[in-house]
Amino acid sequence: MHKHRLLMEDKEYQDAVNTYQMKSGADWLLFGIPVVAGIVSVEYIPISHEILRWGASILITVAVFVACVYVKSLSNPHRAISDIEEDVKRRAYQSYLETGKLPNAQK
């Protein structure tokens, strides 16, 4: 119940979440590449069956999308969100042990 509130109050978490938003032209280009790769691959895949060709094109699109997300995550200057969540949980638990209540708990 308090997890969402604690995360929303943490500045580092908010900064890390905001870096995954598409804000620049490079972000749009990075996520447009899989669409272009999928469309182009349909024409050049040497498979005679149309359904198999479309299936292979979808697999190529997904693989390129995963690669683009990986590149985007490498350009992220923040720590992983899961690490930040663990730190927030640990700080909240320490505060609870010391004071008997969660930090900034609303009554």
Identify the notable features of this structure and list them briefly:
107 residues; mainly alpha; 5 helices
Structural class: mainly alpha
The helical percent reads over 70%
Mean pLDDT, as a whole number? Answer: 83
Q: Which parts are unreliable, with pLDDT below 50 for 5 consecutive residues or more?
A: none
Compile the SSE list and pairings:
Layout: H1 3-9, H2 11-18, H3 25-44, H4 50-74, H5 81-99
Helix pairs in contact: 3-4
Summarize the structure.
This protein has 107 residues and is mainly alpha-helical.
Structure commentary:
- The structure is a single chain.
- It contains 5 helices and no strands.
- The protein is mainly alpha-helical.
- α3 packs antiparallel against α4.
